[in-house]
Specification:
36 strands; 14 helices; 9-stranded antiparallel beta sheet; 33% strand; elongated
């Protein structure tokens, strides 16, 4: 860049045309905007000093008009239909040749034009006074003679004459205002016109002189830019033309893994360099991920679409693990019975596996009001279909509720003492004795799948013969792997199968140990280098591909979020009308327990104690004052018998020692033995305690 001349970007772009492109420019002084804005409306607005820009295309968009008097600017579209005329220059010309050579357009197309001399002119025998206007008609060229301009002189009374003036004639000449009119496109197409000043032909718009400058829409390529860079030529940037100095400069085009996967097959194998570190490291727990760092080189062997299986360990483990397994995995699997924790899980599994049979692993009590049947450990159920059932309890509107339920057969256990000759008859009898049981989908339960299959399967066969999810166990490890991470787990669940676009890659120092990168789950930028492959030509190594990749639980949740975004949640139990519905009825055992529990409460005088409590929201009104305040109010007589005294007598409070009442006489009986009120029998101690409690209540 030493010795090169820096020009404003707008001036440099205006000097270009399509025939001289592409041009390589280097920024000498950058332009920055507040807030580190890098792009506005799809156009670049910032460049740094030293940036290389390869201009590939320019397109004229508008014209910037600057008022010479006050430096105000405004823009006009290039399709503006107004006309402009040239403002004569105030600078004088010293020779006719200089004046002709400074015409804004080609000489032939700019003729005629008019000028005047500031002093007297003598041409041969003709003398012209100062200020005489001369109109140049043509330029005459003669061999071995000096060029001359043929000019027209107009005198008084429309008299005219022609005179030839040598181009070397010296004097002080000034350009006169011409009657020529130009459009914006004509002005912008000529470099000479762009250097002149103009004013509108229609003086009502702006009568002051204007400087017109083109504004181009520039398309270029820059280093480490994925797309074509677009920016206006009006950016205040100084640039230098370095096209000849930087012929061998190669612009790096960053590619995402998805874009690499869309590259043609001829691009593989190739060496790539990582420009940006992976952004989604939290999704994987594999050994090769930490080595993917900036400036690291990789070998991309090939691209493809790999069928993969997502496996998970048991949820009962403290730290569940998840694996992304290629269907090329060579281990052998055996099916494991699945466990279900609700009727809804049974229903979902039965959709993919008709005729599903399960065994109950935990007792369930019957609740008639909620429609929950009784289940015992060991009972076997066969799922039939999804149906609807009417609940005995009423809803808020007082109507019966209908909910979704699962209809099953309760299978009878076979008798080992049956005769073989009557096997067909017993089979028909057992089918007739199938007991239907219906369970609401919101019911909780514990079931385990009943399996009779003991075969060994390949991973690819499991996906073909069974629906997912499926519980399996690895019973034969993959012998091609140094360490099989799946071998040793008591149970694995096949969550889903997928087709993933992948890139088979390896590190340069270990080209034979390959791994598959799922392009949709790993985000990083790379570019293809020109480095050679680390093996002899046409002799690629035998690759050992890693078939099991451990992923994080974040990967599993993101996968579920993408695949089951519209899945419905499990059903909720219906709402009951609590003001009208009775408590749920349980099994006989629970009824007896409740009955014995509340049987002893009948002998407690709950009515009297509830009247004495201080927790009532509304206090009972105080009794009216007695007629004689000096005497205590009489006690209400009670009717009791000897039998009631021995049976219903309350036990004394052993924790509080109460003094005997001064009154030792018995409570007088009511003279009317046939009273309509049948009161309970209360002994003396209880009566005294009740009286004191009443007094305390009245006091508060």
């Amino acid at each position: 860049m030493a010795g090169a001349t820096a020009l404003p970007l707008q001036e440099f772009i205006a000097s270009l045309d399509d025939t001289c492109l592409p041009k390589l420019l280097q920024v000498c002084s950058g332009v920055y905007f507040q807030g580190s804005i890098y792009e506005i409306s799809g156009s670049e607005v910032c460049f740094s000093t030293g940036d290389l820009i390869k201009v590939t295309k320019i397109e004229l968009l508008s014209v910037s008009c600057q008022d010479v008097a006050n430096n105000e600017t405004f823009e006009l579209p290039i399709s503006h239909t107004g006309l402009f005329r040239v403002v004569p220059e105030e600078m004088p010309y010293s020779t006719v040749e200089e004046m002709v050579s400074m015409r804004p357009v080609g000489l032939d197309s700019s003729l005629p034009f008019t000028f005047s001399s500031h002093s007297k002119m003598t041409i041969g025998n003709l003398a012209l006074g100062a200020g005489t206007a001369l109109t140049v008609l043509s330029v005459e060229k003669h061999k071995d003679q000096e060029d001359q301009v043929r000019c027209l002189i107009r005198g008084q009374q429309e008299a005219s004459a022609e005179v030839c003036i040598p181009v070397s004639f010296r004097g002080e000449f000034y350009e006169c205002e011409s009657e020529e009119r130009f459009t914006l496109r004509e002005i912008m197409s000529s470099s000479s016109l762009r250097s002149r000043r103009f004013r509108f032909v229609n003086a009502t718009k702006c009568d002051r002189p204007l400087m017109l400058s083109p504004v181009y829409h520039v398309q270029a390529v820059m280093n480490l830019r994925k797309n074509v860079v677009k920016f206006p030529s009006s950016l205040e940037v100084d640039v230098v033309d370095v096209t000849e100095l930087c012929k061998d400069v190669h612009f790096i085009v960053p590619l995402s893994l998805s874009e690499v996967h869309s590259e043609p097959n001829k691009s593989f194998p190739g060496v790539v360099e990582i420009i940006e570190d992976p952004e989604t490291r939290s999704l994987f727990k594999c050994s090769w991920l930490p080595e993917l760092r900036k400036n690291e080189h990789l070998i991309f062997h090939k691209k493809g679409t790999s069928p993969m299986i997502l496996l998970s360990t048991l949820k009962s483990r403290k730290t569940p693990q998840y694996f992304l397994v290629s269907q090329q995995y060579g281990g052998r699997f055996r099916r494991r019975p699945r466990e279900f924790n609700s009727v809804y899980e049974l229903y979902v599994a039965s959709i993919h596996a008709p005729g599903l049979k399960v065994s109950v692993t935990r007792n369930c009590e019957e609740v008639e009001e909620e429609g929950l049947p009784a289940l015992s450990v060991g009972e076997q159920l066969e799922v039939v279909r999804c149906d609807r059932m009417v609940l005995p309890c009423e809803g808020k509107a007082g109507q019966k509720q209908s909910v979704e339920a699962l209809l099953c057969y309760r299978l009878q256990e076979s008798d080992d003492d049956d005769d073989d000759d009557d096997e067909d008859e017993d089979q028909v009898k057992r089918e007739d004795e199938k007991e239907e049981i219906i369970m609401p989908l919101y019911m909780e339960g514990h079931f385990v799948e009943v399996l009779s299959d003991n075969r060994k399967y390949k991973l690819s066969d499991l996906g073909k013969e069974f629906s997912l999810p499926l519980d399996v166990k690895v019973v034969g490890r993959d012998t091609e792997l140094e360490k099989d991470p799946l071998y040793g787990f008591s149970c694995l669940r096949i969550e889903a199968a997928m087709l993933e676009p992948t890139i088979q890659a390896s590190f340069v120092h270990k080209p034979e140990y390959c791994f598959e990168i799922p392009t949709q789950w790993l985000s990083m930028s790379v570019y293809f280098t020109t480095d050679p492959l680390p093996w002899p030509k046409d002799q690629p190594p035998t690759c050992q591909v890693e078939r099991v990749t451990e992923v994080a639980d974040t990967f599993f949740y993101e996968f579920r979020k993408r695949g089951n975004s519209d899945a419905e949640p499990p059903p909720r139990p219906p709402k009951r009308n609590m003001s009208f519905s009775a408590p749920p009825k349980k099994t006989k055992k629970s009824k007896k327990a409740n009955k014995s529990k509340h049987q002893g409460d009948k002998s407690v005088p709950t009515k009297q104690f509830s009247d004495l409590t201080l927790n009532n929201k509304k206090r009972p009104p105080a009794p009216p004052p007695p007629a004689n305040e000096d005497e205590p109010p009489p006690l209400v007589p009670r009717k009791f018998s000897a039998a009631d005294q021995t049976i219903g007598k309350a036990l004394p409070n052993t924790y509080v020692q109460m003094k005997e009442s001064a009154k030792t006489g018995s409570v007088p009986e009511d003279e009317n033995g046939d009273s309509d009120h049948d009161y309970e029998t209360v002994d003396d101690t209880l009566a005294v305690m009740m009286k004191k409690a009443q007094e305390n209540v009245m006091y508060y």
